[in-house]
Amino acid sequence: MLPAKEWPPRMSFDAIRIPLYLSWADPHSALLAPWKAWMQSYPRLQTPAWINVSTNEVAPWYMAGGLLAVRDLTLGEPQEAPQIDDKDDYYSASLKLLVWLAKQDQR
């Protein structure tokens, strides 16, 4: 499988839903292995916001908001009720809420 030619070959906002939905369906899915390996290779607050899957170049800024919530869910780290504030745009807030719903389903 190759990245689509129409977009940059990055794992970021557009692909972060893959580990979200996999984690939601089965937090122990073997399909999460590459996501977990990549996310675990960085300290929580220093996980790059994206990685170029062709070159391994990473973003010069870190995950925050909804991206960080998906990271935490994927790695099975504790989740609190979502805190949505002015720093969260629509997509970040939506990811936080989806992560919260996933955790509710896993109880």
Task: Give an account of the 3D structure.
Strands 1-2 form a two-stranded antiparallel ribbon. It has 4 helices and 2 strands; from the N terminus they run E-H-H-E-H-H. It has one domain. Helices cover 40% and strands 4% of the residues. With 107 residues, it is mainly alpha-helical. It is globular, with a radius of gyration of 13 Å. Helix 1 (17-25) packs parallel to helix 3 and helix 1 packs parallel to helix 4 (90-105).
Could you provide a short overview of the structure?
It catalyses: Endohydrolysis of (1->4)-beta-D-glucosidic linkages in cellulose, lichenin and cereal beta-D-glucans. This protein has 107 residues and is mainly alpha-helical.
> What Rg, in angstroms, do the CA atoms define?
13 Å
| SSE class | mainly alpha
Number of distinct helices: 4
Lateral arrangement of strands in the main beta sheet: 1-2
Mean pLDDT: 94
Helix proportion range? 40-55%
Low-confidence stretches: none
Largest sheet: 2 strands, antiparallel
